[in-house]
Write a structure and sequence with these properties.
The chain has a single domain, classed as AttH-like domain (AttH-like fold), CATH 2.40.370.10. 7% of the residues lie in helices and 56% in strands. It is built from 1 helix and 24 strands. It has a 15-stranded antiparallel sheet that branches. Strands 19-18-17-16-24-23-22-21-20 form a 9-stranded antiparallel sheet, with no helix packed on it. Strand 6 and strand 7 (136-141) form a beta hairpin. The longest helix has 25 residues, at 2-26. Bound molecules: 2-acetamido-2-deoxy-beta-D-glucopyranose (5 copies). The site of one 2-acetamido-2-deoxy-beta-D-glucopyranose has 6 residues, from strand 23.
Length: 369
């Protein structure tokens, strides 16, 4: 009898090990090592999605004209605290807004504190290892204490920074509440992954419950807020492919919102808009008529300091529109006259209905023209 039980246990263990290996076989897994030294030669940048790898590396290697980054942010409901963490594999020659150093493996962290001041740190890694399982990715930025861990189904991510020598230690967790997407549609195989020529984009977590828990220079810095994660890449320098860019994201009532317009150097305008509610996509479109964005006041420009925000009109389909204003509250990153990022409030309504006023947003503008 004892023998039988042991044999049964042995069988059960083997069946479960077999099941686990079958499960993992169905989830493509890959590991990529990105050295800190730039690659010399041509690189390949993915442009069409597959049914996996949404948040995995999309460049075959990082040469001096290419760039790739993974972006995470959270903003508090009172708009007074915000954190932005960006993991780069790029040189300044590929993305002109990072320090001009010879390492391609860099992490940038920006803090907005409740008293309105900001601070940032930059960490330099000796190597990056990115593991991709199904749609999600995880990364280790070696010798910085920084990295992230993502669920294969993109349901949650955790970013960790352990850099006491820079005064920054803590974690940032994101629990997704809105489905992933690409610039023209949902997260499935065969989608165009370009927001504009030479600019790839995937949005793993369009909206999330964010849990930020840090110590910065010995002081506690923690809040629960509205969070987001996306990923950009290209094989040609970003700055050569953008004249102007507006990007923003936020939540208004039950709606999760993401918008982007890129005006290419030849003047062509590329737009992307995303709206989800109750963890379902309402619209994910790159139709140029899908939305409009107008600075308020009309002749103002935020970077030049005269602007209070933007007025947006989104087409929800079936004759419905979502009209809202985003009003600047705090500046999170200021590289005027070429770049700024803000937190802001959102007020608006669906098809002229009741105005909802408790919205929060983070948004940015590049002006390279
Ligand atoms: C990097 O790769 C891209 C795409 O193949 C190529 O166009 C570019 O010239 C390469 N850059 C360098 C510096 O070799
Ligand atoms: C603002 O808050 C930060 C974080 O608590 C602190 O380090 C900084 O000294 C404060 N600045 C001012 C001007 O109060
Ligand atoms: C680009 O498209 C957006 C969204 O449709 C629109 O609001 C904006 O006016 C356009 N900008 C230019 C320069 O054409
Ligand atoms: C948005 O701003 C415009 C222009 O200032 C204004 O006419 C409109 O009433 C505002 N809408 C909301 C919902 O606040
Ligand atoms: C290629 C390169 O510049 N690598 C450097 C990256 O940063 C580490 C730590 O600062 C250096 O030791 C590497 O030489």
């Amino acid at each position: 009898m004892k023998f039988l039980i042991v044999q049964f246990l042995w069988l059960a263990l083997n069946v479960s090990a077999f099941r686990t290996s079958i499960r993992n076989m169905n989830k493509p897994e890959s590991r990529k090592v990105i050295p800190s030294a730039v690659f010399s030669g041509n690189v390949v940048a993915n442009t069409i999605s597959t049914n996996a790898n949404l948040d995995g590396p999309q460049l075959s290697a990082v040469n001096s004209s290419s760039y790739e980054w993974w972006y995470f942010d959270a903003v508090s409901q009172d708009l007074k605290s915000a954190i932005t963490i960006v993991f780069y594999t790029a040189l300044a020659s590929g993305f002109g807004f990072i320090p001009s150093i010879s390492n391609v493996t860099v992490v940038g962290v920006d803090f907005l504190f409740p008293n309105g001041t900001t601070s940032s740190i930059e960490l330099t890694a000796t190597e990056v290892v990115i593991t991709t399982i199904d749609q999600g990715s995880s990364a280790v930025y070696k010798d910085t204490g920084a990295g992230w861990h993502g669920a294969p189904d993109l349901s949650c991510y955790k970013v960790k920074i352990n850099a006491p020598e820079y005064g920054v230690v803590g974690t940032f967790e994101l629990k997704s509440i809105a489905p992933a997407h690409y610039s023209c549609g949902s997260a499935e195989a065969g989608q165009r992954m370009m927001v504009a020529p030479n600019i790839g984009w995937s949005n793993a977590i369009p909206d999330a419950v964010g849990d930020v828990d840090f110590h910065v220079n010995g002081e506690k810095y923690s809040f629960q807020g509205n969070a987001y994660h996306d990923h950009n890449w290209g094989s040609q320098p970003f700055q050569n492919n953008v004249a102007q860019e507006h990007w923003g994201r936020g939540r208004l009532g039950e709606y999760s919102l993401v918008w982007s317009t890129v005006v290419a150097p030849d003047g062509t305008n590329y737009s992307t808009v995303y709206v989800a509610a109750n963890d379902k996509i309402i619209t994910a479109s790159c139709d140029p008529k899908s939305f409009s964005i107008t600075p308020i006041p009309v002749n103002g420009d935020p970077i030049k300091g005269t602007l209070t925000g933007y007025e947006l009109k989104l087409d929800l389909g079936e004759g419905m529109t979502l009209d809202f204003n985003v009003t600047i509250i705090e500046t999170v990153s200021n590289a005027a006259p070429v770049y700024m990022r803000w937190t802001g409030s959102i007020a608006g309504s669906v098809s002229g209905g009741k105005v909802i006023t408790d919205g929060v947003a983070t948004f940015e503008e590049f002006n390279l023209s």
